Amino acid sequence: MRKTLTVRDEAPSDQAPPAKRHAPAISESRLDSLHDTAREMRRNLTVAETRLWEHLSGGQLDGFKFRHKLVLGSAIVDFFCAEAQIAVEIDVGADAATIERRYRKLADLGLTVIRVGESDVMEVIDEVLEHVLGELQEVRARKAAARKPAVRRDGPRQTSGYKGSFR
After folding, report:
1. Residue 51 contacts by C-beta under 8 Å, 6 or more apart in sequence?
2. Of 11, 99, 106, 159, which sits 20 to 30 A from 167 (CA to CA)?
3. Is 14 domain-assigned?
């Protein structure tokens, strides 16, 4: 049985859970077909996808881990960072209506979508990577600020620890 990646928002335990985002209902046969297509696409990356993947794989971009050609909902995304909930899509000659429909599908799942042109990946890869890294770091900073505990004003915290000596 194959599974599709589900997208979850992490909320601090003292807050109400966020509104759930549901992937569209997909039949098992359609989901199997999507996984087969994604597998085939991973085996046959375009030149631009290969070039970008060389820079995103293995946590090379500031430790952010990416997966490529991943099934999310009813779409296959080019690159996906689960930590930041960001999908990076390379636009390759599709019509504007198709691109907009794909963008809305992914946005409905709560993802941020970064669209880059194939020519940009081939000609100015450094600028593309800087843009993607800026978005990733912004998400990381927002998460860190949300996790930051409130400052205690009632003095130092007492800890209970081992009071004996170590031998």
Report:
1. 121, 122, 125
2. 159
3. no
Q: What is the pLDDT of residue 3?
A: 55
Q: How many domains is the chain built from?
A: 1
Residue-level pLDDT at 99? 81
Asked, for residue 73, whether it belongs to a domain, the answer is: yes
Residue 38 lies in a domain: no
In total, the chain counts a number of residues equal to 167
CATH code at 90?
3.40.960.10
Q: How many CB atoms lie within 10 A of CB 41?
A: 16
Domain containing 117 equals: 51-147
Compute the C-alpha angle 114/119/124, nearest 5°.
Answer: 80
49, containing H or E segment: helix 47-56
> Do residues 141 and 92 lie in contact, with contact meaning Cβ atoms separated by under 8 Å?
no
| Token output for 56 | 């995103």
